[in-house]
Amino acid sequence: MKLNKFSMLLAALLVLSMTLSACGSSKEEGGKDSGESGSEDKFSVAMVTDVGGVDDKSFNQSAWEGLQKFGKDNGLKKGNGGYDYLQSKSDADYVPNLNTLARRNFDLIFGIGFMLAKPIEEIAKQRPDNHFAIVDMVVDQPNVASIMFKEQEVSFLAGVAAAMETKTKVVGFVGGMESDVIKRFEAGFRAGVASVDPKIKVLINYTGAFDKPDLGKSAANQMYSNGADIVFHAAGATGNGVFSEAKERKQQDPNANIWVIGVDSDQYDEGTVKVDGKEYNVTLTSAMKRVDVGVYDVAEKAKNGQFPGGQTITYGLKDNGVELAKTGNHLSAETLKAVEDYKNKIINGEITPPGTQEEMEKFLSDLGVKP
Amino acid sequence: MAKRVTKVVIPVLAVILGLLVGALIMLVSGYDPVMGYQALWQGIFGDPYVIGESIRQITPYLLAGLAVAFAFRTGLFNIGVEGQLIVGWFAAVYVGIAFQLPAYIHLPLALLAAGLAGALWAFVPGILKAKLGVNEVVVTIMMNYVALHVTNALIRQVAGKDMTERIHETASLRVPYFEQITDYSRLHGGIFIALLAVFIVWFILERTTLGFELKSVGFNRDASQYAGMNVPKNIVTAMVISGFLAGLAGAMEGLGTFEYVGTKSAMTGIGFDGIAVSILGANHPIGVIFGATLFGALKYGSLNMPNPPAEIPEEMISIIIAIIIFFVASGYLFLWLYEKFLKKKGVK
Questions:
Q1: Smallest CA–CA separation between A340 and chain B, in Å?
Q2: pLDDT tens, residue by residue, A53-81
Q3: The model scores a pTM over 0.90
Q4: How many beta-carbon contacts under 8 Å exist across A and B?
Q5: pLDDT at position A28 over 50
Q6: Do the chains contact at B307 and A100, CB–CB below 8 Å?
Q7: Nearest to A20 among B163, B269, B326 (CB)
Q8: Where does the sequence pass through the membrane (chain B) (predicted)?
């Protein structure tokens, strides 16, 4: 009797733990012989991902693409003395992974994501002769370069595009965890929308996770059902659920006016949907955050002996660190013109998109919108 | 006697079988299993740093496994170890930051806070089970989510961002001497607390009236009631002690490994792994040492497998661990079939 209950619970439990730990796993074919090729004099770089993994279709992947490009441009091979990455499966893995790469003598080691800030700080203190860089967070150590992005600038433009294109005058924002970075996305987006038309309603939903497409899907479902025709997501893999909801609606009615604005990378391919042999696409545009550009740039600087240790480099619209994707030509000429106008205004400092809750509230109330 | 032997033999066989099947999978997918297991071995015992980190990884598993085992001996399935661990982690770090006290008060206070937070979290399903007969499995699972999101909100409230500051050194479990001998690994003094907990749990279960009553309730609730034991009280006691242990596991992370707490987008997994640790250890305190060591070592050692020269994806180790649990679980099934088979034979 007891055995029965036990095994039943065990089965239930195993299913549970499997689903919980079944997030992003990579199929990286690292089996090729990279060996210890004689490239001692070459500049080598490596990175540690956060728990999202290297194929998250988001900033980890983007960073790895930047490193791969850097490797290719400099004739490096994957592996020791070239370029490489290590994935982290839990928060506890960051420190050992960083340490392993330091012991493998990489000249510059990147930590991708704010979760690695404390681990990098710790290792940087222990290994003052090694060079590190962190994305999305500032770490104040002489041997750490901090790479930041002005997400609010590009999401402002995304907001402008959404406001110009919406027919229902209702748009949505789906966020991941309520972190500083995602807040910048939200603040910029709402400010952009309000700048075009303060009367447009913006629905906000924070799902609390970056790895739960089901939550993204139900959030998007609610928004579309409540009249939104464009939903902007800044939620990593959770945002994949936003895409699947939009595509399902498109499948039921190919004429439906349903759009998604992607994030981090150009998510045009995510939005492709086939209905009766005809291809449609629901990706209006994407608010691209070029982590690859930042990573490449810092690697290049370090290679030339100008490692920006102790400094914070912020990439914005001005240096193409963030930009709005135009794949698919879904934006009208009028919209493109408005986007271009606002872009210029942001670059020459006429408009400063808000980056925090307080700044956003002030920005919106100046426009007469209740935040 | 024979039963005791099978209790030891089954997990050991399961582990060996799991490793063999793991090797087979590596072979099939075109990796060198010898290289793979060598990298794994090096990742666990290769040098002082990894030995330190392996022990560091084992520490919370010990306490999480104990928490599950303790509840299980009373016939309760505490799947809420995960949530109790998370609130314990937060409570420990909060005390570590908010107060400034001498170390001999600060550290015990932080540990106590973690234990009490975990105990409180386990008290809810305990009292519901005892008074209303609500299934503790459902309640503890749900309490995990409550814990995750409540602590996330509290961290944001307290720290104003996604991560707290570091705890004061007076609350830290880290020992400079350990850092010295293990090349700056995060090995901390918590391992002694965990081992002490193993002994205390063993003592309670095997040498005290309380332990006898708890186990008795686990064997047969009605008979215990009939014998005059207070069953509801025992259920609550078991859950609270289990939760206290889980909270301490959180303190290992908060005061030792990380020394801070950050918002989480998902469960840590330590609590769930604790269930497997407990099962591997046949729900016995001493067995938990075996289970935790194996689990922690595999988990940490696997981090070395993607590095040259092995270059095996670390996902492989997840498969191996899953297979080991699978074999242990089905081991009980084998035992059951085996006993049935024997009985039939006996009749004949």
A1: 34
A2: 888 777 899 999 999 999 999 999 998 99
A3: no
A4: 116
A5: no
A6: yes
A7: B269
A8: 12-31, 86-103, 109-128, 187-205, 235-258, 270-296, 316-338
Count the domains in chain B: 2
Rg (CA), chain A: 22
Provide the edge-to-edge strand list for the sheet that holds A259-264: A201-206, A170-175, A230-234, A259-264, A283-289, A322-324
With H, G, I as helix, E, B as strand and everything else as coil, classify residue B202: helix
Burial class, B142, CB count within 10 angstroms (exposed 0-12 / middle 13-18 / buried 19+) = middle
**Whether A31 contacts chain B with CB within 8 A:** yes
Query: What is the reported pLDDT for B162?
Result: 82
pLDDT score of A336: 96
Q: Read out DSSP for B21-47?
A: HHHHHHHHTT--HHHHHHHHHHHHHSS
Token pair belonging to A172 = 């949505």
Closest CB to B313: pick one of A10, A28, A117: A28
* Residue contact B162–A177, C-beta within 8 A: yes
Are A96 and B303 an interchain contact pair (Cβ–Cβ within 8 Å)?
yes
Q: Examine the domain organization and report whether B112 and B230 are in the same domain.
A: yes
- The amino acid that residue A192 corresponds to is G
Residue B250 lies in a domain: yes
Using a CB-CB cut-off of 8 Å, the residues of chain A touching B311 are 30-31, 34, 79
- Whether the pLDDT of residue A16 is over 60: the answer is no
Q: Would residue B176 count as lying in a domain?
A: yes
Among A179, A183, A356, the residue to mutate for chain B (most B Cβ within 10 A): A179
User: Which residue among A10, A100, A118 places its CB closest to the CB of B329?
Assistant: A10
Count Cβ atoms within 10 A of the Cβ of residue B308 and give its class: 0-12 exposed, 13-18 middle, 19 or more buried. middle
Distance from the Cα of A68 to chain B's closest Cα (Å) equals: 17
Do B60 and B156 belong to one domain?
A: yes
Domains along the sequence of chain A with CATH: 40-149+292-315 (3.40.50.2300), 151-288+332-366 (3.40.50.2300)
Q: Which of A357, A210, A231, A227 is nearest to A283 (CA)?
A: A231
For residues B197 and B330, state if they share a domain. Answer: no
Residues of chain A found within 8 Å of residue B323, distances taken between Cβ atoms: none
Count H helices and E strands in chain A, helices first: 11, 14
Domain hosting B142: range is: 52-304
Query: What's the gap in Å between the CA of A82 and the closest CA on chain B?
Result: 12
In a domain, B46, yes or no: no
Q: Lowest-confidence range among A35-39, A168-172, A228-232?
A: A35-39
DSSP E strands, chain A: 45-48, 83-86, 108-112, 131-135, 144-149, 170-175, 201-206, 230-234, 259-264, 272-275, 278-281, 283-289, 312-315, 322-324
CATH number at residue B97: 1.10.3470
Q: Are residues B171 and B319 in the same domain?
A: no
Q: How far is A210 from chain B (nearest CA, A)?
A: 7
Interchain contact, B266 vs A51, CB within 8 Å: yes
Query: pLDDT by residue (tens digit) across B108-158?
Result: 999 999 999 999 999 999 999 999 999 999 999 999 999 999 999 999 899
